[in-house]
Amino acid sequence: MATVRRSRQREAIKSYLMSTTAHPTAETVYDDLKKDFPNISLGTVYRNLNFLVEHGEALRINCGDGFEHFDGKTAPHNHFLCRSCGSIIDLEMDGIDHIDIIANAGFSGMIEDHVIYFRGLCEDCQKNHLD
User: Fold this and answer.
1) Choosing a second label site near 95 at 20 to 30 A (CA), which of 7, 13, 33, 115?
2) pLDDT over 70 at 99, yes or no
3) pTM of the predicted model, to two decimals?
């Protein structure tokens, strides 16, 4: 097995993801890290984000807005997507892993996991919508 070389840039990207709940795009990560790593390239950020996802150290979120978002919180959890402002919010809720069993009951294949996005209006947009 090949040894994976440690990288200050990769560690900075991972730390950045762990420090935010904003679910940033690669471009956002790049813009914010450029302050501390002026020679970092957008390609380096993409490669390292892909590495982190492939190694289970980050999640990739495709929410239909044309961008890939990233999440440093890798424990199973669900997301809420605001249809108005586009924010992505971690939902604090009881697990719904039993949905795999329910889905498998009517399916001849084997379901191994699921991705569920809840959609609607976030609290701020709901308040603005009512005004």
Assistant:
1) 13
2) yes
3) 0.85
